[in-house]
Amino acid sequence: MTTYFSYPDPSLQEELKKTAEAIVVPGKGILAVDESNEGIGKLLASVGLENTENNRRRYRQLLFTTDDVLSENISAVILFDETVYQKTDDGTPFIDLLKQKNIIPGIKVDKDVVPLYLSEDEVTTQGLDDLAQRCAVYKKLGCRFAKWRCPLKIGEHTPSVQAIQDTAQVLARYASICQSQGLVPIVEPDVLLDGNHDIVRTQKVTEVALAALYKSLNDHHVFLEGTLIKPNMVTPGQGCPKRNTPEEIGTATVTALLRGVPAAVPGIVFLSGGQSEDEATVNLNAINNVQLKKPWALTFSYGRALQASVWKTWGGKDENIKQAQMELLKRARANGLASVGKYQPGDITTVAGDSSNYSKNHKY
Q: What is the pLDDT of residues 51-81, one digit of tens each?
């Protein structure tokens, strides 16, 4: 049986490939600022502020007006829909400000999770129906990549074959649509920290999820050189009594990736998944120092693990903005070093560095 197949236009291939490679240049990674209005509302409440459009704008302005040296370690920023249209106090669109700093704007395009029918408390991610139209608008506004998250939960009977296949199919359809509109898709199969499973179970589930994902991406003719993947690190569940060393986490993570992620993919940008700022940095450093072949760039796409100290320092007060921005710069610098395996644990400290960022059934 024959099937019709065609590669993307060569000019589109080149554009997508250049953007993907620019995001994962050595020493740089992604700042994820794509919390939903509900998600950032909880953070605003923690510093005594109402969840208003202006307060959300004020916080994101704090991040984006950080000194230009931020771009030494931050190559790209993932935005939420509202943020794409917001401006600084002086009227500069956030997207223009990021471009001026040589930081690539991107956009979260999934519309969060809903229950997966007839599954054991599993979920699917929605937002495909109008995705092409939304991507076209975001591209016109200046975004160059997109992100879509599909969480998978480890339990006695999960993730199910149904959930794994659904994740693979949804991510592949999303990636295909993004590329059709000129955006680099970041695919995010997120094996959650929730549970008491050990690192061996996490590794196996991650490998199975990756195998299904790349089979589906191939079936949908996705141009891999113009994609990135944002996976979990392979760690034990939050409730597992045995805690593994960074070196063990690094070996398990790279082994799983070698078994599932094609070498054609330019880079792997890890999510922090509820790890503390310090844990996320130390584990990323260990991953980059594993003595196994690593055909892709291995860097970060952190939200909570780049912002926890910023929130604690800012506290909703304008007089703390500069100090909060310094915390962001320090954390970005630590992760930039870790992304090339040159971070020395303890060399860079931040005020919330050892505080857990874990939340059960986490939603952005």
A: 999 999 999 999 999 999 999 999 999 999 9
| Residue 173 scores a pLDDT above 90 | yes
Q: Which amino acid is at 150?
A: C
Q: Is 188 a catalytic residue?
A: yes
Tokens of 195: 């549970």
Given 230, 277, 279, 327, the catalytic residue: 230
pTM exceeding the 0.85 threshold for the entire prediction: yes
Q: What is the pLDDT of residues 285-294, one digit of tens each?
A: 999 999 999 9
pLDDT given at position 123: 97
Contact (Cβ atoms closer than 8 angstroms) between residue 310 and residue 350: no
Output the six-digit token pair for 339.
Answer: 């992304």
**7 pLDDT tier (thresholds 50, 70, 90):** confident
- CA 88 to mean position of chain CA atoms: 25
Q: Which residues of 118-157 are buried (b: 16+ CB within 10 A; e: fewer)?
A: ebeebbbbeebeebeebbeebbeebbbbbbbbbbbbbeee
Phi-psi region at 268: left, alpha or beta (left = phi > 0; alpha = psi -120 to 50): beta
Task: At 45, give phi and psi (nearest 5°).
Answer: -60, -35
For the cut 70, the answer to whether the pLDDT of residue 9 exceeds it is yes
Alpha-carbon dihedral sign for residues 344, 345, 346, 350: positive
Active site residue 247: no
From 15, 122, 188, 327, active-site residue:
188
Contact 232, 362 (CB under 8 A): no
